[in-house]
Amino acid sequence: MSRLGSLSCRNSIESRILLPISFSGHFIIPSSACLSRSQLSAFSTTPRQPFPRDRNRSRGVSALRRTGPRQPLSVSKDPLPQPVLDPKKKTKIPVDEDHGLWQFFDKERKAISTPTEDHAHGRPWTVEELRNKSWDDLHSLWWVCAKERNRLATSAFERERLKAGYGEYESDRRDSTVRRTQRAIKHVLTERYYAWEEAWELGKTEPGVNMFGEGSAFDTQDLEEEQKLVEENSPSVRVHSGTV
User: Fold this and answer.
1) Within 13 Å, how many C-alpha atoms sit on residue 168's CB side?
2) CA distance 192 to 200
3) Hey, which residues does 62 pair with through a beta bridge?
4) What DSSP character marks residue 103?
């Protein structure tokens, strides 16, 4: 633009600014075409970044949606490892066949049992039946029930993880049967504990009972004297055998 043209634009702008109000009632704004390039500037003097940052390094990263970061990283060009699908090429890891964790699975070592397998069970043990069992039998039966509940819990967890949608009713019914057996075992052990407490209190009042746990539980001398007194006071009965 020539000097004469710039002066004319400047004079026209000054004449418009000096005018108070136009006929429409608004101020007249000068045209931006008459302004020079030196009078125009950007809003911010900071150089613009190609990727805006919000100070969140995990922005846009999602394992569920399989999305990565917004901008490529330094490791983006490295090839990802490929899974080994051929069973012959897989590394064989030695596994203990008698490991204790195998008891969390069934005999076939399956993670999820079928509804038919969970439904095939009997009734729970009753209190009357368990009263005739010894301490060792009750102890063994308790841990059999505990392992069975662990196996059912493993199947339930795997079934929920896979969203299988079957086998929950049969598994819950089997778990309820096992829990009723454990409740009966606790009932029998509680009865025996109360019986032992009563016997302990009764033994303190008996002079012939040994409460220290050393030697015989009863004083045999007192028992022999008591037996002699019973024989002396009882009428003698003699049986004569005849010959045929």
Assistant:
1) 9
2) 12
3) 67
4) G
Total-model pTM: 0.53
Give, rounded to a whole angstrom, the gap between the first and last alpha carbons of the chain: 163
Residue 67 has φ and ψ, to the nearest 5°, of -115, 145
- For residues 22-37, give the mean pLDDT: 51
Task: Report the distance separating Cα 59 and Cα 55, nearest Å.
Answer: 9
pLDDT range class, residue 29, cuts 50, 70, 90: low
- Residues 105, 234: Cα–Cα separation, whole Å: 67
Mean pLDDT of 17-35: 49
Closest CA relative to residue 156, chosen from 107, 122, 118, 183 = 118
Higher pLDDT, 227 or 23: 227
Q: Measured between alpha carbons, how far is residue 43 from residues 46, 47, 48, 92, 149 in Å?
A: 9, 11, 11, 65, 70
